[in-house]
Write the structure tokens for this entry.
Amino acid sequence: MLYIISTPIGNLEDITYRAVRILKEVDLIAAEDTRQTSKLKQKYNISTKTSSYNDQNKKFKTKKFIHEIKKGQNIALVSDSGTPLISDPGFYLVREAIKNNIKVIPVPGPSSTLAALVGSGLPCHHFTFLGFVPKKGKSNFFKKIKKYEHTVILFESPHRIKKTLKTMQSIMPNADVVLARELTKKFEEFIRGKPQQILHNAEILKGEIVLVINL
């Protein structure tokens, strides 16, 4: 069978007992970033063999993994952090596994989107996650978001956050925005305010960024 295992988004202690047990018991760990996964394996004494699985090799590796599972092996899929399939190539493997009548078992755990949402202080009973802010066409993207009547969650790079906030300032200046960065890590931070206020504090931001927006 194929396990979809959520792993820590920063703090290595944020993993379930079940996830650790399964990672030790499976025949292979398919990892988006083997270097990141090795840190987790070292902390929890996991000796299971690891194989890379990413956008570049997903078609070849998917065929190989499907073949191995059909032969009787169990494989665990992990992303570099958080819950697999959210803005990573895992969907391709899961879809093919289901087509081949392979049992898919999700093992829930950390998620940066939910951590940012519940810590934001913005309404969380109805929300939409839209992944990464596009590199091009930001204006049209935020014009569409402006029509939403509920909370929106986005990912953004620290290298592009300033440009994104300037676009938001021109299109939705009165939006309530929470910028969450380095979630679960030592320098975890929530910056709250209107786009202009956030922009004022976003000069030297580093690390993973989640934007939570409510109009």
User: Anything to note?
Assistant: The chain has two domains: 2-107, 112-214. The radius of gyration is 19 Å. DSSP finds eight helices and ten strands in the chain. The chain has a mean pLDDT of 95.
